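Annex B. Sample input.
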Amino acid sequence: MNVYLLIFAFFIGCMIPLQALINHTLRVSVGSGAVFAAFMNFVVGTLVLAVVCVASGEKWSSVPGVLKVATVAPWQLAGGLLGALFVFGTTLLAPRIGVATMLSLIIAGQILASLVFDRFGILGLVERELTTPRMLGAVLIVAGVLLVNFGERLRS
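Annex B, continued. Sample output.
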């Protein structure tokens, strides 16, 4: 496995709590709700991606490509909906339940859902066995979530 891709994945993970905090401070600064802060996140993200598409020479504005989007199944556009829900959710939850609690639960959900998606090859993924090490890793992550959220109670 390419070590640079692993480092990039870790870097992305480090940015998620920062993104939630930045969106929260935006929400507070402009006196808006979490939906508006999430919307602004997507406006800026869209502009950045448009610049990157142009700078990279990627064909994204051709008429045939745009027309093909109109022919895809509606569920194939749900990534934007899920991304909006994620950004809105983190903006809403971070100041209310804390970043560590929020992200520990998000990570646990990601791992558990990913194991299911891999196991059954959902949406064309290559099927991957649900091996003992993978299951143990998921159990350890859930244990970590419990410690992050309830570990203080164990000291009593």
